[in-house]
Design goal:
The chain is of the alpha/beta class. It contains 6 helices and 5 strands. The chain has a 5-stranded parallel beta sheet, with helices on both faces.
Length: 138
């Protein structure tokens, strides 16, 4: 299998969780992931943590990218991580968080199981590279 075929099999869910209505960044990253050859599913706005977990499990994604700008990351992301654990999907899902997340909150999210936090101004190339290097092997 060529490396290009392997990259095509990376399945990503880009999720907007909570009441945050700003989705431009999520659209930009979803498009960039698609252009990079990933399979991309976009959750749409205003999803509850349970809905994000259900979508990730049902779609059998390799990568869950959570876009959050509302400041509720410290409440919503742990709920998503707990849900993934309940379904036995936490270990084989690369979870990324993107958006406005203060530096002092990043370690706590990583302790919950988030692999990386990408703040404003992160290049899409950096994010794509991280996914290619860290997505779970199928």
């Amino acid at each position: 299998m060529s490396s290009e075929q392997e990259q095509e099999s990376i399945r990503c869910l880009v999720a907007k969780v909570g009441l945050d209505g700003h989705d431009r960044g999520a659209h930009v990253i979803a498009r960039a992931f698609r252009d990079a050859g990933f399979e991309v599913i976009y959750s749409g706005l205003h999803k509850a943590p349970e809905e994000v977990v259900q979508a990730a499990v049902q779609e059998d994604v390799d990568v869950l990218g959570i876009s959050i700008l509302s400041g509720a990351h410290d409440t919503l992301i742990p709920k998503i991580m707990d849900g993934l654990e309940e379904y036995g999907a936490k270990e084989d899902t690369l979870v990324l968080a993107g958006g406005v997340i203060p530096d002092e909150d990043r370690e706590e999210l990583k302790a919950e199981g988030v692999s990386a936090v990408f703040g404003p101004g992160t290049s899409v190339e950096e994010t794509i590279e991280f996914v290619r290097e860290n997505a779970p092997e199928r």
